[in-house]
């Protein structure tokens, strides 16, 4: 499945962004919509509908608490015209992300179903299912219920004590802290391709001396290449000059003097250099398809102590993020994407983790373009109960990794696949569960390291032996020994040494952080104040500095920005561990981090060695009193 990109052969892409009709099925069974077949008619004819923006989460759009916290099936529909002259094409309906289960109908006929948010799915609409004289209708039913076998897992608890709860009362229990935003989160598009079309492209790049290699494998909808009159493969540089050619579906193209793809902090002259891979096929009947894929030439390797990009050690000074915003929830939001990338650069960040689910392709495009490296994580967060490790969960998890690798395999920014966040990897069941997931992911893509993010005690950890890079989350002086920042260096230092001693693999600290209410100050520091967050982070930074260049290959603060959570007594309107507020204003900690990251950029020999010192000196002493 290729992302719908406009080319001369694929000019028609109709984006259904806008106000859709919306109706939550609040019947006790949540099945009224199916019983009454709401998909057969315009939703507005079935009962009261409200306008709902697509893309967005439906939770924070209205003033209705019931809808914010709704669990069950919610229904959407919208209408569109389809051009008569395109009826002879292959017509595809693509939804970039619907959370969680989705069923999609066109003019009352079911087109497809999909389980799981954050990843795209598509299906063909047949010409006879469409009208060219009248409006057509798309209906989408979305169910946000999380169960022991969904990713992330959750549980519906029925409360049977009628002294305390009305009959049929249930609550959704979550096993992660972030709010379970739901709805049609990303774009919905109708596009066409020729009937014989380019189905998939896999690119694997390499280089040696002054030559780059682009190993390509193209699949088309026709299984027999003899159905094709011609195949033209062309590689263009950033100026659109042709730098390589081929005439087959599989092979290697040599690129003389390649511009390698580098993270933006590692090359001043041409960071994040993107080439274009263009394929044109012509069938015996003269039908033509054409697809253009941006890509970069780079390699990733791992040793016992290092993560290498293009054979140079890479240190990740990054942030773990969330897709989260006021009002839109997890809905695709271009101004927010642009702002976040400006803030990532302002911070001096060279790496993000897509905690705890795959981010929008529009975000990934910016990572490729702007040179931000990505640890690409699947929605395997909160796999902590024994009933989350069964065969149904496993087969779904394997499928999700396939969908993720399929979606992002050609992205130069993606340097690692993360299969989960904080599962109970000390349970014996975890080995039988994660070993095949890690091995399967590696088999799908042998070119990138695989990992999961651990939080167990090193002595109890069972799964990390199967990863390439160890990622761990640590909350010393927050969830343990709260307020005792004086213990951080001793505890974290000893801990990291033990992890490396036991597994002999490079380590990234993938989370560390303290909840901080912006504007709350107290000196001496006190938990939840900005002073505490700074003091806390400074202690972690001392440890990171002592191990950087040894086996520590990255640090990621938790979190880039404050984000919404479920309601619980340890959160005051959301998780406040951001270095930015939810509205993207900096806390003191953002300035501290910025100062630190620019210092790292300036002082890391490998960056100097490659392309000269970057011109960011003036950032390193903005807060000399803070960084000491
Ligand atoms: C970590 C989780 C992350 C939470 C964080 C926290 O990985 O999703 O938001 O704790 O509690 O354990 O702030």
UniProtKB/TrEMBL annotation:
Major location category of this protein: other
Q: How is its activity regulated?
A: Inhibited by L-aspartic acid.
SUPFAM superfamilies for the chain: (Trans)glycosidases (SSF51445), beta-Galactosidase/glucuronidase domain (SSF49303), Galactose-binding domain-like (SSF49785)
Single GO biological process annotation from the record: carbohydrate metabolic process
In this chain the Glycoside hydrolase family 2 catalytic domain maps to 300-600
What are the residue boundaries of the Glycosyl hydrolases family 2 sugar binding domain, all occurrences included? 14-194
- GO function term, MF aspect, one: beta-glucuronidase activity
Recorded GO CC terms: extracellular space; lysosome
Name the InterPro entries for this protein.
Beta-gal/glucu_dom_sf, Galactose-bd-like_sf, GH, Glyco_hydro_2, Glyco_hydro_2_AS, Glyco_hydro_2_cat, Glyco_hydro_2_CS, Glyco_hydro_2_N
* Assigned keywords, A-Z: Glycoprotein, Glycosidase, Hydrolase, Lysosome, Signal
**Catalytic activity reported:** a beta-D-glucuronoside + H2O = D-glucuronate + an alcohol
> Where found, per UniProt?
Lysosome
What highest taxon heads this organism's lineage? Answer: Eukaryota
Query: Where do the TM regions start and end?
Result: none
What EC number(s) would the UniProt record show? 3.2.1.31
Q: Which residues form the Glycoside hydrolase family 2 immunoglobulin-like beta-sandwich domain?
A: 196-298
Q: How does it assemble?
A: Homotetramer.
Record family assignment = Belongs to the glycosyl hydrolase 2 family.
General function of this protein: Plays an important role in the degradation of dermatan and keratan sulfates.
Q: What is this protein called?
A: Beta-glucuronidase
Q: Source species, please?
A: Pinctada imbricata (Atlantic pearl-oyster)
The beginning of the lineage is: Eukaryota, Metazoa, Spiralia, Lophotrochozoa, Mollusca
């Amino acid at each position: 499945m290729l992302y719908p990109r406009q080319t001369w052969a694929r000019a028609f892409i109709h984006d259904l962004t806008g106000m859709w009709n919306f109706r939550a099925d609040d019947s006790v069974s949540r099945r009224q919509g199916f019983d009454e077949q709401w998909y057969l008619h315009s939703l507005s004819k079935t009962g009261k509908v409200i306008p709902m923006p697509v893309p967005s989460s439906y939770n924070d759009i209205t003033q209705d608490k019931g809808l914010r916290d709704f669990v069950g099936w919610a229904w959407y529909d919208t209408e569109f015209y389809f051009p008569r002259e395109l009826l002879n094409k292959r017509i595809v309906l693509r939804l970039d992300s619907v959370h969680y289960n989705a069923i999609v109908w066109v003019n009352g006929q079911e087109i497809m179903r999909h389980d799981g948010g954050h990843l795209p799915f598509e299906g063909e609409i047949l010409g006879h299912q469409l009208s060219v004289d009248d409006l057509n209708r798309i209906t989408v039913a979305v169910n946000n219920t999380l169960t022991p076998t969904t990713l992330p897992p959750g549980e519906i608890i029925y409360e049977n004590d009628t002294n305390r709860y009305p009959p049929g009362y249930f609550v959704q229990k979550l096993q992660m802290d972030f709010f379970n935003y739901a709805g049609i989160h990303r774009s919905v598009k109708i596009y066409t391709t020729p009937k014989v079309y380019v189905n998939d492209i896999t690119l694997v790049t390499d280089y040696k001396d002054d030559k780059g290699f682009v190993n390509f494998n193209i699949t088309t909808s026709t299984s027999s290449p003899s159905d094709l009159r011609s195949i033209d493969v062309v590689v263009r540089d950033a100026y659109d000059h042709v730098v390589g050619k081929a005439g087959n579906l599989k092979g290697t193209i040599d690129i003389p003097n390649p511009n390698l793809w580098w993270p933006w902090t590692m090359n001043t002259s041409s960071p994040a250099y993107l080439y274009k891979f263009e394929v044109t096929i012509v069938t015996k009947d003269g039908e033509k398809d054409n697809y253009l894929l941006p890509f970069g030439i780079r390699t990733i390797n791992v040793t016992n102590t290092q993560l290498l990009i293009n054979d140079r050690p890479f240190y990740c000074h990054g942030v773990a993020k969330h897709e989260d915003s006021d009002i839109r929830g997890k809905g695709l939001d271009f101004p927010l994407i642009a702002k976040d990338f400006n803030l990532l650069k302002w911070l001096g960040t060279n790496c993000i983790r897509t905690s705890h689910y795959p981010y929008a392709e529009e975000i990934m495009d910016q990572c490729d373009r702007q040179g931000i490296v990505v640890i690409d994580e699947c929605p395997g967060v909160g796999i902590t109960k024994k009933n989350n490790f069964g065969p149904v969960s496993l087969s779904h998890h394997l499928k999700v990794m396939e969908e993720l690798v399929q979606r992002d395999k050609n992205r130069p920014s993606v340097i690692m696949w993360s299969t989960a966040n904080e599962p109970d990897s000390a349970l014996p069941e975890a080995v039988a569960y994660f070993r095949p997931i890690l091995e399967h992911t590696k088999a799908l893509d042998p070119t990138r390291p695989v990992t999961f993010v651990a939080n167990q005690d090193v002595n109890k950890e069972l799964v990390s032996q199967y990863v390439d890079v160890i990622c761990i989350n640590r909350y010393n002086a927050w969830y343990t020994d709260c307020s005792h920042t004086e213990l951080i260096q001793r505890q974290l230092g000893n801990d990291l040494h033990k992890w490396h001693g036991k597994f002999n693999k490079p380590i990234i600290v993938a989370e560390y952080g303290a909840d901080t209410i912006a504007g709350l100050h107290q000196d001496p520091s006190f938990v939840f104040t900005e002073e505490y967050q700074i003091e806390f982070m400074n202690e972690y930074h001392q440890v990171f500095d002592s191990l950087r260049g040894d086996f520590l290959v990255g640090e990621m603060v938790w979190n880039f920005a404050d984000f919404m959570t479920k309601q619980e007594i340890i959160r005051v309107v959301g998780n406040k561990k951001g270095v930015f507020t939810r509205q993207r204003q900096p806390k003191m900690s953002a300035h501290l981090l910025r100062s630190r990251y620019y210092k790292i950029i300036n002082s890391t020999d490998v960056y100097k060695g490659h392309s000269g010192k970057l011109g960011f000196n003036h950032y390193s002493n903005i807060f000399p009193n803070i960084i000491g």
